[in-house]
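Collaborator request, handled under Task 6.
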Amino acid sequence: MKVNALDGLLADEGTEYWQFCFGLPSDPADLEQKLDAYQSAYAHIMGRAAYEGMAGALPTATDHPFSGILNAARKVVFSRTLRTAEWANTTIAAGDRTEEIDKLRRGGDDHIVVWGGVSFWRSLMWLDLIDEFHLDLHPYVAGEGTRLFDDVPKSYRLDLVSSTAFSNGTVGLQYRRHR
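Structure tokens returned to the collaborator:
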């Protein structure tokens, strides 16, 4: 997950916190780090809602720094209702999520980036399919919203891989599942 307030909350779309966190990184080093991670990914997976939002904007975007990377990247959208995927290099995975992600893992030797809402993330956590968490901790107290780690199936230990403080006050944290 990419966004978190100091109080551990994710915000609902339309709130001040949502606008603050979901804008493009204002720190050049933060943006560069994200561009590198997205460019080097073997695949980008997403839920239907994230796919529809991104596919509706990025294919024709000329000024968004992620558009070129994501337009060319391999994308897999997890949906049981979506019938077609018009965005280039996109396939639909309607089967078992564990099996579909295991197929992706066997097919590539680099990381898979997850895009999506809290319910998609939680479904992957419930299936124990997330190996690393990249969290951006923003200098903001949301006060209300959704907790990413509510309703997780079990506790598990995370090992800190890296932490980077950016000039805009955001701290990028990378944690790997301790297995």
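The cover message to the collaborator said: "The beta strands are 4-5, 9-10, 43-47, 75-78, 90-93, 112-115, 132-138, 146-147, 158-165, 171-177. Residues 28-39 form the longest helix (12 residues). Please let us know whether this matches your experimental observations."
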